[in-house]
Amino acid sequence: MTRFALLLITFILLPPGTALTATRLALHWQPQAQFAGFYLAEDKGFYREAGLDLTILHGGADSVPADRLSSGEAHFATMFLATALERRGAGIPLVNVCQLVQRSSLLLLTRKKDAITDIADLDGRRVAVWANEFQLQPWALFRQHDIDPLLVPFSGSMELFLKEAVSATLAMWYNEYHTVQAAGYLEEELQPFFFKDTAFDFPEDGIYCLAETVENDPETVAAFVSATLRGWRYAFAHEEEALASTEARMRAANLAFSATHQRWMLRTIESLIAPPDGPDEFGRLSRRSFDPVAAALLQAGFTDRLPSYEVFVRSIDYVD
Amino acid sequence: MSIKPGITFKAVSLFLLLSVSILTAVHLYSYLVSRRIIVDMAEQNSRGIGGTIVHQIAARITPVETIIRNIAATLENPDLSDEAIFELTRSIVARNEAIFASAVAFEPYAMIDDQLYFAPYSYRSGDQIVTKQLGGADYRYFHQDWYQLPRLLDRGVWTEPYYDTGGGDILMATYAVPFYRTHKDGSRQPVGVVTADISLAWLQQLLAGIELYDSGYAALLSSSGMFLYHPDQQLVLNETIFSLAESLGDRELWEIGKDAIAGGSGFLERVSYQNRQPSFFYYRPLPVGDWSLCFLFPRAEVLRDITGLTRTTLVINLLGFLVLALAITWLTRRLTRPLINLSHAARSIAGGNLETPMPTHGGNDELGQLTVSFSEMQRSLRDHIEQLTETTASKERIEAELRIARNIQMSILPKLFPPYPERSEFDIFASIKPAREIGGDLYDFFFLDQHHFCFLIGDVSDKGVPAAFFMAVTKTLLKVVADQYPDPGAILTKVNNDLAEGNESCMFVTLFIGVLDLRTGRLVTGNAGHNPPVRLAAGTEPALLPSPQEPLAGAMSGITYTSQEVLLAPGDFLFLYTDGVTEAVSADGTFYGEERLLREISAAGAQRAEQLVGAVDRSVNDFCSGAEQFDDITMLCLRFIAPTDRETTAATADENAASATLAATGERDTITVELRFGTKLTALDDLVGGLAPLKTDGQLTERDHYQMRLALDELITNTVSYGFATGTGSGIEVTITLWPGHRYRIVYRDDAPPFDPVTVSVDPEQRSTEAANFGGLGISLVTTIMDAIDYRWKDGHNVITMTKNLTDRPDNDNQHHREMA
């Protein structure tokens, strides 16, 4: 109803005859509070006000957002910085038009009772890693520590870890770290290793598009980025509305919704997007964050050709 | 029902308090015990239902697990063809109703060398069984939990249940078992996983159908605490027991979840998170996938029967208490009613009604005895009151007699002033104010001879009738002795010896005697323990007359008293008093004292003896205002005017008619009239004529003359009408002596039967009817007219001596004289 009313208002406010630009956004995961800012920008009509008729496409474990951009299925896509750079190196002309998550929320989660006090202790042990994506950081970390864990690809649930089929699992701080707690683990029973505390503190969620989109239609890019950040600011200021918008999408997608869990996610993601103690990089990717990732990718041999910061990072142009 | 806070109230309160306490204790105990039993039964019930559920689930699940394990064993045969495996999945589903779908998924390239995916999958679609190949770029099955878990754990595993989106949103769970084949190198290698998907809809229905009291329910938790079934659909597959506990801040719930997924079981009491009702919570593990079964049911429903029972018994008890209270009230009232009647009767008796009838109480119990006792008491009281009435009557009679005796005692003191109007050498005045109780004060004065005037004052120790008698004896003795011994010391010596003789009661008297020689002013005094008198010499301050401390008279014989001499100057006052004056007590308890007395005498500025006595009397009155008078107040004052050598001056030793005769014969300025009257009323005819000379020669005013006539008229009328009416008596003699311009005296003598008009006139209220008729207002008139009246019975005659001062006098003086009378 609210959405309908907002749409109506948007239509009334827009000059007659102005057509909305049909725009598609591919998110790199299933609906959850990780994307609350996008949902609110849509629900509050910020995209429409910006002249965009946005369609949100959700991803999953087997979905590759970069491919959706190159295929033209989406105009914009969210990706981790490392993934985006790797794709760029693989030939997809991606550019960063907005950086949301400024720090790495990735962590290696172990059980305290297994007495894994150091990364090196994982040598030879089973470590669950997502079947697709996100492989660089653990790989680089293991190489840095010169260890050879037995990597077990997994689809996303924490079952392998919970049923103790693995000694460690990759997890996102805003998501699986809490999922494990919601399955009966106390925080003090867990021993996490945060990548943000390592040399591989890679910024994560950013908004990307093809270079040609920026060249051909910079207004749309600017409108989209601006409306998205507006949505995020609104989400942080209105936690309950953000949770409601998230719940609606999760239920529509038949996903399990736990208000407790999504609240945790929203609050954690806020601390990553707008770190209370960090520099005000809201929406932008700084060179200081960009360079280590690029260097790590080159060093790891994931790619041998990377664009310069100036070429790749266009978010500076779109974020005030 | 009005319960007074009496015996009834106390009895009811005590009985009820005790019975309520006892019954409350019994109820509390039985409630607690029954509650324990009921709660135990509830726990047993929970375990029973839980066991049944487990059996039902096991009956359905165990065959599935067995089949899949057997299939896994079958699949270890490397000779199975692709088609056979496809057919195998199909037949697993076809042959087992409980199984919704089945897959046999191989490791990459494990079945067919160049084929990454090989996973035949059969599932129900409507009535059909559809078989297809799983795996592809968008579904890499070997990354799925159902594949990874049995592979990694090397055993059959139930996966975390999920909603099957393709199969119509049915809650599904997958049982997956790994299978192995022997490698070429002889090692046993994992080759794949065989699965069976089963719908949990039946399990949800089973749990939904459980009846736990009225509103109790069951819930199902997965191995990670996820709600697989809960009446609140919002929780199912959305929340874990831990996330629920986190959102509620409920640490206990969290602990329960932890214990449950660890395979624990328990029965405890806790508050329902939904409606905050105290409830019972039961949980136990299920034989499937480390899942847990939970029951929650409201405590109130469990305890409903016992609560109802308790309520009913409470009502019965309350009614019982009410009946008990009524019964006790009725009983105690029945018991106390005679008591109350008795109490009313007693109150009536206490109020003075000794004739109050006693309530009849038939029984011979304590109450009956009490009633008898009361009746006896009433009788005794009645007798006592009768005795008391008699005693009081006799006491009143005695008191009346005492009053008369008092009057007699007072009448023996001279009270006619001036007593010697013809003597100009001195002036004397005395007063006595008797205390309520009979006292023993006395005074007297008389001439020893023509030139020696004796005056005295005394105070008998003690009070009462003996003192009065002693006083009378003393006065008489003094008079007799003084006539024989003119010296005060000698008088006292003699009187003391006489009094002490036979004085069994050891009474004594203080006495002061003075003998004044009127020719010279020489005063000889004697003092037996009396207060020294005050001398007020003209032009000086009053002073106590020096006086030796000689013993009291009457206590011991053989004492010789001395005499002292002092010379009075013309104008000197001598003031004699008893200790009734100086020991008069004021309302605040202080004595009047000698100092005050001297001060008052000095301040009085008296010219005559009477004035000085009057002044002191007023002062004592003011001082004692409001306080009771304990002692007689007696004062006697003598003023020595001037010595005289008039040898021929008339003097008298008696104050009756004899002196009048002397005066009539001697003095040129005195007029004496003697009249005689018969026994008939016609005597009055002579009265006017007889009195005429007094008017003409004596300058008696019209008013005085009229009053004199009126008084005589009344007296004569009385004497004739009542005295002579009996036939006795011969007549009346009246001697009138007039000192023109000063005063007159009437001596009235008749030989009628004795009749004292003075006593009659003092208290008209006490006269008998006869006396009232007899005296009537006439006698009162006489006492009003005259300044002093004295009555004596002498030599068979009534002798009434009346004095009237002709100068104007203050009214209170009149009062004073009458009081003394």
UniProtKB/TrEMBL annotation, chain A:
InterPro entries: NMT1/THI5, SsuA/THI5. It holds the Pfam family NMT1. GO terms for biological process: thiamine biosynthetic process. Pathway: Cofactor biosynthesis; thiamine diphosphate biosynthesis. It catalyses: N(6)-(pyridoxal phosphate)-L-lysyl-[4-amino-5-hydroxymethyl-2-methylpyrimidine phosphate synthase] + L-histidyl-[4-amino-5-hydroxymethyl-2-methylpyrimidine phosphate synthase] + 2 Fe(3+) + 4 H2O = L-lysyl-[4-amino-5-hydroxymethyl-2-methylpyrimidine phosphate synthase] + (2S)-2-amino-5-hydroxy-4-oxopentanoyl-[4-amino-5-hydroxymethyl-2-methylpyrimidine phosphate synthase] + 4-amino-2-methyl-5-(phosphooxymethyl)pyrimidine + 3-oxopropanoate + 2 Fe(2+) + 2 H(+). This is Thiamine pyrimidine synthase. Belongs to the NMT1/THI5 family. Responsible for the formation of the pyrimidine heterocycle in the thiamine biosynthesis pathway. Catalyzes the formation of hydroxymethylpyrimidine phosphate (HMP-P) from histidine and pyridoxal phosphate (PLP). The protein uses PLP and the active site histidine to form HMP-P, generating an inactive enzyme. The enzyme can only undergo a single turnover, which suggests it is a suicide enzyme. Keywords: Iron, Metal-binding, Pyridoxal phosphate, Thiamine biosynthesis, Transferase. GO terms for molecular function: metal ion binding; transferase activity. Residues 33-242 form the SsuA/THI5-like domain. It comes from Desulfofustis glycolicus DSM 9705. Homodimer.
TrEMBL record, chain B:
Keywords: Hydrolase, Kinase, Membrane, Phosphoprotein, Transferase, Transmembrane, Transmembrane helix. PROSITE patterns: HAMP. Gene3D superfamilies: 6.10.340.10, Histidine kinase-like ATPase, C-terminal domain (3.30.565.10), PAS domain (3.30.450.20), PPM-type phosphatase domain (3.60.40.10). It holds the Pfam family HAMP. SMART domains: HAMP (SM00304), PP2C_SIG (SM00331). GO terms for cellular component: membrane. Residues 333-386 form the HAMP domain. It is found in: Membrane. It comes from the Bacteria. One of its GO terms (biological process) is signal transduction. The chain crosses the membrane at residues 314-332. The keyword Ribosomal protein does not apply. GO terms for molecular function: kinase activity; phosphatase activity. This is Sigma-B regulation protein RsbU (Phosphoserine phosphatase).
